[in-house]
Specification:
- The complex is a heterodimer of chains A (about 550) and B (about 270).
- Chain A has 19 helices and 20 strands.
- In chain A, a hairpin with a 2-residue loop joins strand 9 and strand 10.
- In chain A, helix 4 packs parallel to helix 6 and helix 10 crosses helix 16.
- The longest helix of chain A has 18 residues.
- Chain B has about 270 residues and is mostly helical.
- In chain B, helix 1 packs across helix 9 and helix 6 packs across helix 7.
- The longest helix of chain B has about 35 residues.
- The chains are: A alpha/beta (about 550), B mainly alpha (about 270).
């Protein structure tokens, strides 16, 4: 325990109904320092933050010492913790939409923090709130404090959360995955803001994240967590260079994992599989009046590209750029307002007009491993669903389901289990098995690995590469994550505001982006300095 | 579905079970014939022969309450069944055609029905087609339909945005198949809860219609009519009004407790939060 630390924890442990969840955590956070806490889901990162804030769930008990300003805050009664929260320790969360009250204006919510802690009266708090909002980049003339959370973008909402958390200039700000739900360019801006606040206020920041490259650019010290313990802690650069603990090494290897892929056969150019020509997709907006056609929003604007057989094509863009809309049109779920999409030379039309023989040539894997399955069906039935396109399950359906499960590394015994019995990574394997079962030519992977931990992500990427080699699949890989796209695709398309702004070989585009937007994207992506990663792991 | 049952669920189910059993028993046996008049023994207090006494015609109150429970429950079951049978498919259809003409037509039709006070229209129907238990059922059933349609559509709409519905569409399944296979099983718990609430409202509505003489006709006993017949005697025989009133209150209370309890029991999100 270091004297003069903003916060120092020693022997911090948490038990939930007698079972240990965290044990023996010790760390110091220097005033004005940024401390990174890194680990995969379930490692206890968020639990640590909740323990510091005294916000543990029912049935959980904290032990050990957490010192702040010379006193142990772990044993404080709830009334004193209330005074401490917000005033001494602020916190921001991953999902800014759910952290804000949807029926209160942002100004009122920031003012509330000030009033609760007696820092201002109602009238003074309003002015102070506008001031705090301006400080986090929401000036009153551009984003008035009278706005409601739903009127803001994700990044702006996170700024409001930050304004609330730092309104009273706390000594410590705990940020739990503050940028995970945000786009890469927004993430860069929020990280900049946090860095600026730390520098200006001399506030300490505890940055909790799964993303090694985020801590690399922000933190001065890093702790790596695994299963409720800190396995390694050191100054950031030293830890990145040394990687002393085997788990740290595994984490680094997984984060930068590039699956081994069999190069596409050289020689004759393969036949085009998917051709998108001048595709246009409009959405009607809310009517302005009772009469007249409603105005339209053009989500996809004259997009053209070709995907060859056996190829992996990446489609990169930020949220709202139209990539999901384009995906639905390609899958024949929503009609186009112009242009055409051809699969194997046959035109894709939405709805019942699309023959099953065409539909069965493509399948899809979605992002959310929890929402992708009907919770009331067993795995055998879930995986067999695409047999509908063959006019019902064939006589050997069970064998084929077992074979598809085996192809993704699951056993036949899993067929009779329900989906909630599986982890996120296993569910994503099941989703891939469902896509594989009728041997499509094209699999659309819509952010298919974005919700997974790095080590699981590496396994799924390996699996995808392996399946591509074995079954001659083509992938359309849609993602906002540049690292992943770089690892798995041959060519890449960059989409912005409904248009493709850049197209080219993945290596070429990442090495020398031509379009300004692509350059911004690549520059905004946090990266671990390359010289930190040299000389392997030894010494 | 293996959540812990709340005390409300147990109490509610027990209360309702008492009346449901009494109603079932009345099919085979009642202490006395409900049509048997005994003017000499009218307005008698509780005795070994008549556990809760007799009314102004000397009919046995226990027997009348038992048969009244049967009338109420039968009307409510059929009315809820009608609401489910019409409302759920309409709601599923509207959700499947979300934003389209069909959706608009169904939901505006719903609004139209909602716009009329239910009991007034029920009175209108029975006034036009004549008072009878069947017309009471029709009237209550019609007003159950938009309730179920709206609940179904709302829940189905949120399901339609889920990835597993998209996956089913990619597998070439049509709206009808998806509605039956994926949506209906996942909103069944909501419908059970709503059904319980509508059931209690149905019992109230039947009592109300019978009270104004538009429900079950004499000599079939009904709680509402027992109330109406006894109100002139409330000064000297208050138990005649109190007993059917109590029966209505306890049944409706039981059903509402059961509905609340079932909602907590069947909703996995609420269960986890407990």
């Amino acid at each position: 325990m270091t004297a003069g630390a903003a916060l120092s924890a020693a022997g911090l442990g948490v038990t939930i109904r007698g079972r240990p969840a965290l044990s023996g955590l010790g760390f110091d956070i220097r005033p004005g320092g940024v401390f990174g806490l890194v680990g995969e889901s379930g490692s206890g990162k968020s639990m640590t933050a909740l323990a510091l804030m005294g916000l543990l769930p029912d049935g959980a008990r904290a032990t050990g010492r957490v010192e702040m300003g010379g006193r142990d805050i772990l044993g404080l009664p709830e009334s004193e913790m209330c005074a401490l929260r917000g005033r001494e320790i602020g916190m921001i969360f991953q999902e800014p939409m759910t952290a804000l009250n949807p029926v209160q204006t942002i100004g009122a919510q920031v003012a509330e923090t000030l009033v609760v802690h007696g820092a201002a009266d109602r009238a003074g708090a309003r002015a102070a709130a506008a001031d705090r909002l301006a400080r986090v980049g929401l000036p009153a003339d551009r984003v008035p404090p009278t706005r409601y959370p739903h009127e803001l973008s994700g990044g702006q909402r996170q700024r409001v959360c930050i304004a609330m958390a730092v309104a009273l200039r706390p000594k410590l700000l705990i940020a739990d995955e503050p940028t995970t739900a945000l786009d890469v360019t927004t993430q860069a801006k929020i990280l900049d803001l946090l860095g600026r606040l730390v520098a200006e206020d001399g506030m300490s920041l505890m940055l909790i994240t799964h993303d090694l490259s985020v801590v690399a650019g922000m933190a001065e010290r890093v702790a790596v967590m695994q299963e409720g313990r800190i396995v390694e802690t050191a100054a950031t650069e030293a830890l990145f260079r040394r990687r002393a603990h085997p788990y740290t090494r595994r984490l680094f290897a997984a984060a930068s994992h590039v699956p081994g892929r069999t190069a596409a056969a050289a020689g004759a150019r393969p036949a085009p599989l998917l051709e998108v020509r001048e595709a246009v997709r409009d959405y009607p907006l809310a009517r302005r009046g009772l009469w007249g056609a409603p105005p339209v929003f053009r989500a996809v604007n004259r997009v053209s590209f070709t995907l060859d057989e056996g190829e992996s094509l990446g489609l990169v863009g930020e949220s709202g750029c139209g990539k999901s809309t384009l995906t639905r049109a390609i899958l024949g779920l929503e009609p186009l307002q112009g242009g055409a999409i051809r699969l194997d030379g046959e035109e894709v039309r939405a709805g019942a007009a699309m023959p099953p023989s065409l539909r069965r040539r493509m399948q899809v894997v979605f992002q959310d491993p929890y929402g992708s399955f009907n919770p009331r069906h067993r795995v055998a039935r879930l995986v067999a669903e695409p047999f509908h396109l063959m006019g019902g399950p064939p006589p050997d359906a069970r064998e084929r389901v077992a074979a598809a499960l085996a192809a993704v590394g699951l056993g036949p015994g899993d067929m009779d289990r329900f989906i909630h019995e599986f982890s996120g990574g296993q569910r994503q394997r099941i989703a891939i098995a469902r896509a594989l079962i009728i041997r499509p030519k094209l699999i659309v992977l819509d952010e298919a690995v974005s919700a997974l931990d790095v080590s699981i992500r590496a396994q799924i990427l390996d699996l995808l590469a392996d399946l591509q080699g074995r079954f001659g699949l083509s992938y359309l890989f849609i993602s906002h994550d540049l690292t992943v796209v770089r690892a798995i695709t041959d060519r890449v398309l960059v989409m912005k505001a409904g248009e493709i702004v850049e197209e080219g070989g993945t290596g070429a585009v990442f090495a020398a982006p031509r379009h300004r937007y692509t350059q911004q994207l690549i520059a905004a992506a946090p990266a671990i300095p390359e010289h930190w990663m040299e000389n392997g792991h030894g010494a | 579905m293996s959540g812990r049952a709340s005390p409300a669920l147990g109490l509610g189910a027990a209360l309702f079970a008492v009346f449901a059993l009494a109603a079932a028993l009345s099919l085979a046996w009642t202490p006395h014939d409900v049509a048997a008049l005994d003017i000499a023994g009218r307005l008698a207090g509780p005795s070994a022969a008549h556990w809760l006494g007799t009314d102004h015609f000397g009919r046995d109150i226990v027997s009348m309450l038992m048969v009244g429970a049967r009338t109420s429950i039968a009307v409510a079951i059929v009315a809820v069944g009608m609401g489910l049978a019409l409302g759920v498919p309409l709601g599923l259809w509207a959700a499947a055609r979300h934003g389209g003409l069909i959706d608009e037509a169904i939901m505006r039709g719903n609004d139209l029905v909602f716009a009329f006070p239910a009991l007034v229209i029920a009175i209108l129907i029975t006034a036009v087609f004549g008072p009878s238990a069947v017309n009471a059922i029709l009237a209550i059933g019609i007003f159950n339909t938009p309730v179920f349609a709206r609940v179904t559509r709302g829940a189905a709409l949120s399901l339609w945005t889920l990835d597993y519905i998209l996956a089913a569409r990619v597998a070439g399944k049509g709206a009808v198949r998806i509605s039956v296979e994926h949506i209906l099983p996942n909103i069944a718990n909501l419908l059970v809860v709503q059904g319980t609430i509508q059931f209690s409202l149905g019992i109230l509505a039947e009592a109300g219609l019978s009270y104004v003489g538009l429900g079950a006709q004499p000599p079939v006993p009904s709680w509402g009519r027992m109330l109406a017949e006894s109100q002139t005697m409330i000064a000297f025989a208050p138990q005649l009004a109190l007993l059917p009133g109590l029966a209505i209150v306890l049944t409706v209370l039981g059903l509402n407790l059961m509905g609340d309890g079932l909602r907590d029991f069947l909703d996995p999100r609420l269960r986890r939060a407990r």
